[in-house]
Amino acid sequence: MINRSKYYLLLILISIVTLQNTFFELINYGLTFTSVDGLLHFSRGNLYTEISDPFSLAEVYVYYPPGYSIFVGVLLLFFEDSFLTWYIFRAFSAVLVILLIFIFGNKLINAKLGILVSLFSALPLGIVYYKNDEGNFLPALNITSPSLNGSDTDIILILSQMVLIIFILDRHSKTNFSNNKFILVLFFFCLIHALSHTNRLLMIFASVIIFSLAIQFTNHDRKVKTNALHVSLTYQIALLCSYLFHYSNVFNSTAIGEEFANKIPGSLDSISLNFSFYFALFVTFNILVYVISFNINTNIISNKFVDKYWIVYTFFALSISITILYSGSNSSFSSVSGPYFIGNASYFGNILILAKHGYSLLIFFSSFAAYYYIRDQSIRRNYRLILELFLISLMVYLISIWLDFVSRRMGAFYIFRPLFIGSAIYFSYNFLSRINLRHITIPVVTFLVILIQTFMIFNYVISPPIIMGINDYDNTIKSRDYQENIGVSINIIKHLNKVEHEDKLILTLAENQKLFAALYPISPISEEHLGTIFRNEIYFLSFFESYDSEYLVITQRDIISKDNTTIQFNTDKYDNYDFLDITYTNSLGEKVYFYNGGLD
Amino acid sequence: MNRDNQFFYIILFSLVLLISYNFSFSYLFFNPSNEGMEAWIEEVNYDESSYISNLTFVVKNLFDRQIPCLYNLEISNGQWITDTTILNAFESRIITVSFEVIPDKVFITIYAGDVPLTLSLK
């Protein structure tokens, strides 16, 4: 009992951290993305249709039933399109994901794994490789579960489906629910999913169908086979129903069938989809599966091939490698989810990036072990079947890349990432504790793991800001004869380029007249003359008119001398001139004044 | 200390670290550094038919500060308008202000910590 309350406590803590992270994540993304525009996109199963009033529940329902829009719609009625609406929605979704993934891990092995898995899906402990401007992939910490941004209902629906499939395949389940009831609930979830995000249902749909087919060939248990067939049928019927009653015009006068045909991914565009095509495919496929599964002696196949897990796992590792290498070489990919990345991560930059590469590789190799570990330790063999679903979803992803079949929407294996990273850590812990030297090893390893995590997370968040917007040398100036190390903002340069193009004269203070000279190559003003102008107010006031100049630029070097000690000019007086507008300013004191002709 | 307890304390310790990370995040969010802001006037439009002038200006972080910060804007054209904005790393926030009566001079002040930034336009 004490143990159980420990886990509840941990789960609550994880949920609290998740709530906080969701809050910050939402701030980070800003409200612009998750606004009503986002709702209109995500709530339609990827279909764009103009609706006149997104706040009208009745109208939203006609076009975009259950899923996203109903839940958000209700919140919108109370809080409108505000921060609170989106925070409540996302916080609720995030906590639900944490709970579902805990059940997932708990069912597979035990509550400890459940806690680890939920921890890994709640915190930015995974690694994702982002492509930078130079084409290198750089590691960055990332929430291990799929981003909740825009996929909230999908991940919840997918996880619920996984949990339900586990229950359905478990023929020794002690729950009062019969399998039929579970299947009914699964159907309900599939239907909602089909209506709210067709593409993502297709990815799970493809994986589950192949998965149930695989079970027909490899499993000896007739009941498991039948259950798997039922799961497969449930998915097919759900997709069919969503098509018939929502997308096509067979039973629905407000159908959006034409758009649906256009949105069917990639290479299927040209196939004309209609009711008879679906129906024929559906009937043929299931009769085939039924005939094959109950008439073939599966023992031969399963004993000689499938139970050799190393073959399966080698295939798994190979397909990941090929996928990632492929995507690495494909310029359209801007990010690759770790820890499986082994592409052109040649850029090491600094110790932090190196540490992240190391961390990524560590997780990659640990997950090999974790796969076996789950297989061996899982209490019931039927739970372990879900791992095959992972392999199959990976295969579906791989094939979708090769066929150019909306691969971005086929990443069902993402949802298994926290499971693998969590179990990798759990496995390592158990493995080390079996070694005789555990009194030394465990504290050292724990210390190192926590140190790495702390280092990465704290570095990520509270490191001092790095200057990114300042150019020491601007290329436009560097290419000229007049070189000077000018510490100005990129945006000042942009300002000046624009002006230079119009052959306008730009002023800077005397100290920094190289910038002036660079932009006005044949300078009619000597350095000495310029100095006089800035030190004498009478000359200064007439300067703009005399030289047809429009801008006065004051850069960092003008304000603080080269040794960073003495202040050279006080620009306060320029601020007070009515004929000068401040059109650019920054915290370093750099300014661009615009002469507005007010001296006339 | 048995294995179960070790496991528990490891997770608990990690959580304490992570919660403190969240608190530090919040602190930095509400108390932004006064360095690394820039602002410039992007566009000024005057619509003669409706007598409405639109002033568009950009506020941007000069620094990669990793976390968003909260800033206050104050726009003055005789009467004060105040606004609050959240700026992310590398983010430009484009803000457009409309004036129905053309003011003599507009001042935009962005409170980024101790040193406010001021833009002005006649």
In percent terms, what proportion of residues of chain A is strand? Answer: 5-15%
The largest sheet of chain B, given as strand count, sense and whether it forms a barrel, is: 4 strands, antiparallel
Number of helices of chain B: 1
Structural class of chain B: alpha+beta
Under CATH, the topology of the largest domain in chain B can be stated as Immunoglobulin-like
How many strand elements of chain B? Answer: 8
Radius of gyration of chain A: 31 Å
CATH class type of the largest domain in chain B: Mainly Beta
Task: Name some characteristics of this structure.
heterodimer, A: 600 residues, alpha+beta, four-stranded mixed sheet, 25 helices, 10 strands, 7% strand, B: 122 residues, Immunoglobulin-like, 2 domains, four-stranded antiparallel sheet, three-stranded antiparallel sheet
Write up what this structure looks like.
- The complex is a heterodimer of chains A (600) and B (122).
- With 600 residues, chain A is of the alpha+beta class.
- Helix content of chain A is 62%, strand content 7%.
- Chain A contains 25 helices and ten strands.
- In chain A, helix 1 runs antiparallel to helix 5 (83-108), helix 1 runs parallel beside helix 6 (111-122) and helix 9 packs antiparallel against helix 10.
- The radius of gyration of chain A is 31 Å and the shape is elongated.
- Chain B is an alpha+beta fold and 122 residues long.
- Chain B folds into two domains: 1-31; 34-121, Immunoglobulins (Immunoglobulin-like, Sandwich).
- Helices cover 23% and strands 48% of the residues of chain B.
- At the A-B interface, helix 1, helix 6, helix 18, strand 4 and strand 9 of A face helix 1, strand 1, strand 3 and strand 8 of B.
